[in-house]
Design a protein that fits this description.
Layout lengths: L7 E2 H8 L9 H8 L6 H10 L2 H6 L13 E2 L1 H15 L4 H8 L6 H8 L4 H15 L3 E8 L2 E8 L7 H20 L7 E3 L8 H4 L7 E2 L5 E6 L12 H14 L8 H11 L7 H7 L4 H10 L4 H18 L5 H7 L5 H12 L3 H8 L11
Parallel strand pairs: 5-6
Antiparallel strand pairs: 1-2, 3-4, 4-7, 5-7
Length: 370
């Protein structure tokens, strides 16, 4: 993957750049919500509402049609959209303001699936997984180190010269969501940024009530590890599963363009009744022989991809509070629980019971499984 790989669903990017659709067209509301101070706020609002989407996307080299959610764009095109927005509004700190305008609803089904997880750990795992699918240039990871836990944001490819925008919009948005889930009376230890303090560094402190640190080893929201198992107020296991299914049915992901990931996406739809290689190939519009060859060219195989999906689903099952190995074995298409347990040990190095014990805080657990 490089800056010209078309791997970002346009439908996902529109959740960032179509915020004007949900803006309150009142200047006082805009200034209060975005925490920005500008000389002519009425003019700013006119610019936001007056942006022509077709012209906006065309200048970035995107052949845009209203309502088209099946298109992909590259990182370079995404950066061009950011540049246009920053230049039009004359706001180098746009990521901060935009992140503060975003609510859970702006993240769509991805947001619903995340906040309805049983615990904060599950929420972070979901966020990390969606980031990998919906915005591959960035990577998010949940990390636990001693008594501290972190949501870490890093780059898979360079986002210069606007890396700060992508870090800002995500850090502010997830900081706000974090407080909504945990409670405003709690504050993280710090929010850290991996780059030097920009000229508008003082503006960061309008958005975070905890210490803000620059030139840190990583961009992260740093809090207490004990919060990982905090039960979330919106926890709803069935709603979480339903929201994730709806998301991937309506917004394509990079899996639709990159064959191994496209196959995984297909297998996810067959959860509980996985297809044969020939059936999967047919659904992907090719012969079984072609699918086998193309996967080999990518250094993988049908069985390997199936195992990766099964492992992912098994880990998610345990993360959501499932405990029945027999039930899970049947859901994943194994003949019996012993066959599943053997496969699970091969995938993780642990038996299902050992894995569950580790998730509950065993001595070797130091990283949130993603």
């Amino acid at each position: 993957m490089d800056v010209d790989t078309q791997c970002i669903p346009l439908g996902h990017i529109q959740t960032y750049f179509d915020l004007r659709k949900s803006l309150n067209p009142e200047v006082d509301w805009l200034l209060r919500k975005s925490k920005i101070q500008v000389r002519n706020p009425h003019e700013l609002l006119e610019v936001i509402v007056g942006i022509n989407p077709e012209e906006f996307y065309r200048k970035a080299g995107i052949d845009y049609c209203p309502g088209d959610t099946s298109r992909y764009i590259s990182t370079r095109q995404c950066i061009s959209l950011v540049q246009q927005a920053i230049d039009a509004l004359e706001m180098p700190y746009l990521g901060l303001a935009m992140g503060n305008l975003m609510t859970i609803s702006h993240h769509g089904m991805a947001g619903v699936a995340a906040v309805t997880q049983p615990t904060l750990r599950g929420c972070i795992e979901t966020v990390c997984r969606f980031c990998a699918e919906l915005f591959p240039p960035l990577e998010m990871n949940g990390v636990i180190e001693g008594e501290k836990a972190m949501l870490v944001i890093s780059e898979n490819i360079t986002l210069d010269p606007y890396k700060h925008f992508f870090h800002e919009v995500n850090m502010v948005s997830f900081y706000n969501i974090f407080l909504q889930l945990i409670g405003d009376d709690y504050q993280p230890h710090s929010v850290d940024f991996s780059y030097p303090e920009p000229p508008w560094g003082n503006i960061y402190r309008r958005y975070f009530r905890c210490p803000v640190r620059f030139d840190q080893p990583r961009t992260a929201i740093v809090g207490d590890a004990f919060l990982a198992e905090r039960e979330l107020p919106l926890a709803n296991r069935l709603m979480a599963i339903s929201a994730e299914k709806t998301l991937f049915e309506n917004i394509p992901t990079r899996a639709m363009r990159l064959l191994p990931l496209r196959l995984r996406r297909l297998l996810m739809r067959y959860y509980g009744a996985f297809p044969s290689l020939e059936r999967a190939a047919g659904d992907l519009g090719m012969s079984g022989r072609t699918l086998r060859r193309k996967l080999a060219e990518e250094g993988t195989s049908y069985q390997r991809e199936l195992d990766m999906v099964r492992q992912k689903l098994a880990e998610e099952y345990f993360a959501r509070g499932g405990e029945s190995v027999t039930e899970l074995s049947l859901m994943l298409g194994f003949a019996d629980s012993s066959a599943f347990a053997k496969a699970f040990r091969k995938w993780t190095g642990l038996s299902p019971s050992e894995y569950q014990l580790q998730r509950e805080g065993g001595p070797d657990s130091n990283r949130v499984s993603v």
